[in-house]
Amino acid sequence: MGSELKVGDIMIKDVITLEVGHSIVDAAKLMKKQEIGSIIITKGEKAVGIITERDIVRKAVAEGSIDKRVGDLMSNPLIVVTPDLPIEQAAKVMRENKVKKLIVVDAENNLKGIITETDIVKVIPAWISLLEEKAML
User: From CA 36, how far away is CA 50, in angstroms rounded?
Assistant: First the structure.
């Protein structure tokens, strides 16, 4: 029995992006300003990667090379899902790919949002209530 909750119901729609040629310093400043831990990296209109605070610390700062570009450190290819995917399936995709964030795209592969483990955890109580209600019908 599915929950009927879809990725599109709980995803973050206002995704913070940065063009691939920007420096990691630009990325770190943007993360601080926006109070976020990751940024979607774009090339033109398309999402091509993701960079996290952890990427910056482990792949650049710890190696003493803060002059790198986000395109050098980003994780890619992106693991993507569509807004109509049930959240339990999104959680399964995260688990199978060992990622904490999924990029949400439409049928034309245009960026629509992002969903994180935290987003899913926040809706679990409501999800359980919904499943209990269905079980009583």
Answer: 13
